[in-house]
Amino acid sequence: MGLLSPGELWAETRFNANLVLLTANGKGLSHEWPSATTIPDASIAAIQAALKQRGNKSPPASVVLVTADDKVAASLPGLRQAIQLVPLLAYTGSADAYARQLAQQQAVWDVHARGPKKPRCGS
User: Fold this and answer.
1) Among 39, 43, 65, which Cα is nearest to 53's?
2) 114: part of which helix (H) or strand (E)?
3) Which parts of the chain have pLDDT scores under 50?
4) What pLDDT shows up at residue 122?
5) What global pTM score does this model have?
6) CB 34 within 8 A of CB 23
7) Residues with Cβ within 8 Å of residue 89, at least 6 apart in sequence
8) What is the pLDDT of residue 71?
9) Which residues are CB-neighbours of 19 under 8 A, at least 6 positions away?
10) Pick the CATH number of 6-113 from 2.60.40, 3.40.250, 1.10.1740, 1.20.120
11) What pLDDT is recorded for position 65?
């Protein structure tokens, strides 16, 4: 359906060819992506205006819509229809859920950085 989990959102926002659109009610995550384009709401007009604002650049690989409005999930098919040439992905979760996912992933990376446990001598 195109709804992203916090982990998938992290991956999609790291891909520079994607256009990240952040609605006004999703601003709790604005510190994560300073290059994200802020739009007033998750409307067809706002998304099309953001795409048009890119100018003559090539179209993005996909549009990643970040909003705290969980009602957007129901309107995704209509939004996709309006911007047919570009895939539309959406994250409707909270900033807290995203922060928890990042903390969990950081803990995993920290464990991997320490390497495997070594048995004590004589064990």
Assistant:
1) 39
2) helix 95-114
3) none
4) 65
5) 0.78
6) no
7) 2, 3, 4, 8, 12, 62, 63, 64, 65
8) 81
9) 37, 50, 51, 54, 60, 62, 63, 64, 86
10) 3.40.250
11) 92
